[in-house]
Amino acid sequence: MHFSKQFILHLGLFFLFISCNSKTQRQENFGGISATDSRNKVIHLEQEAQRVVALFEPAVDHIYMLQAGNVLVGIPEQVYLNTSGYEFLSGLDDKIKNKEIATPSFSGRAISAESVLQLNPDLVILYEADSETINQLEGLGLNVYTVSSKNKEAIYLELKGLATLIGKSKRAEELIQYTENELNKINKAPKSDKKVYYAWSKGRIFSTSGKGSLIDAAIEAAGAQNACPLEMEATNISAETIYEWNPDLIILWNSKPEDVYSLKELQALPAVKQKQVYDFSPVFYYDPHTIKFMLFAKQLREWCEPQNTTAENDVKKDLKTLYGL
C-alpha cells in the first residue's frame, strides 16, 4: 500500500495531538492541583503545599482561619511586631508565641530572596504590588501565588485559590458562607444615611481612601457612605476639605480618637464636637484585607445606627467561628 509523504506527515501530527491531549488530561486529572492568582496566572503544584512562606500578613491570617498553620515555614516580621495580631495568633500556635517561624523579611515588606530560598518552600504567597520580589522569586524557580485583597470578590477568590493549594477548599467554602450570612444580616436593615470619613493609620488624619477602594467597599458593606467622593485608593487632603465633606463619623485605623480631638484645625467640625470619632480596637479583629471586613462592617454599622441594626455585634463569637476555636 502506498502513502504519500503528506499523508504520513498529517497522520504523525494527528497522533502527536492525541498524545499531547491525553497527557494534558492526565495532568489535569492526576497530576496535581491548580489555582489562579490575582495576576490571573495559573499556579500549578504537583501536590498540596506542605511548606508555605506567606509574606503578606492577611494571607498568614487566612491560613490560620483555614486551620492550616502547620504549613507555615516563613512569615513577615510584622506578625511578631504587631501587638494585637501577635497576641491573638499566639493563642492558636505555640510556634508564633515562641517566635519559631522564620521571618525572611525586614523593615516592612523588604524580603531576602536568599532566606526564602533556604526555607525550601512549595509555595510563596506575596502581595501583588511587590512585583520586583515576585519576579525575583519566580526567577529562582519558586511557585508564587499573589493576592490583591482589593475588594470582596477578590478576597473570596484568593481565599479559595490559597485553600485549593494547601488542601483546605471545604474550609474556605465554610468561611465564605459564614461571612455572607453575617453580611446578609446587616443588609436586612435599612441603609444608613451616615457619611463616614476614614483616616489612615498612625495618626495620618489627613490621608484617606476614596471610591473604589477596599475601605470604600467595607463602608458600603456596613450600609453607610464614604464621605470621600474621589475615585482614588489613597489621597491626602486638607482640613478645609474635611469641613466641606462634613462627615457624620470619623473612623480610625491604628490611631486614637485623641489624635483627632487634639487637632485645633478640626475642633469646629460637627463630628468632632459631637464626639463621633471611633477607632477599631484591637485592629487585628477588623482587618478589611481578609474576610474580617465583615467584622469591620458590623462594627461600623453599630457606630452609625446603634438603634437600628439587625447584625449581632458579637466579635468573640465571630472569631470563634472564623478560626474554628
Description of the molecule:
- By secondary structure, the chain is of the alpha/beta class.
- It has 2 domains: 34-167, Rossmann fold, CATH 3.40.50; 190-323, Nitrogenase molybdenum iron protein domain (Rossmann fold, 3-Layer(aba) Sandwich), CATH 3.40.50.1980.
- It has 15 helices and 14 strands.
- A 4-stranded parallel β-sheet has the order 4-3-7-8, with helices on both faces. It has a 4-stranded parallel β-sheet with strand order 11-9-13-14.
- Helix 9 runs parallel beside helix 14 (293-304) and helix 10 packs across helix 14.
- The radius of gyration is 24 Å and the shape is globular.
- It starts with a helix and ends with a helix.
Summarize the structure.
The chain has 325 residues and is α/β, with parallel strands linked by helices. Helix content is 44%, strand content 14%. It contains 15 helices and 14 strands.
List keywords for this structure.
44% helix; ABC_Transporter_SBP; four-stranded parallel β-sheet; alpha/beta; 2 domains; Hemin-binding periplasmic protein hmuT; globular; Rossmann fold; 325 residues
Biggest sheet descriptor = 4 strands, parallel
CATH topology of the largest domain: Rossmann fold
Q: How many domains? A: 2
- Helical segment count: 15
Q: What is the percent of helical residues?
A: 40-55%
From the 3D coordinates, which CATH architecture of the largest domain would you assign? 3-Layer(aba) Sandwich
Q: Calculate the mean pLDDT score and round it.
A: 88
Q: Which structural class should the secondary elements be placed in?
A: alpha/beta
- CATH 4th-level superfamily of the largest domain: Nitrogenase molybdenum iron protein domain
Record field, number of beta strands: 14
CATH class of the largest domain: Alpha Beta
Query: Approximately how much beta-strand content do the residues carry?
Result: 5-15%
Described by the principal axes of the CA atoms, the overall outline is globular
Radius of gyration: 24 Å
List SSEs in N-to-C order.
Answer: HEEEHEHHHEEHEHEHHEEHEEHEHHEHH
Largest sheet: spatial strand order: 4-3-7-8
How far apart the termini lie comes to 74 Å
**Ranges with pLDDT <50 over ≥5 residues?**
1-30
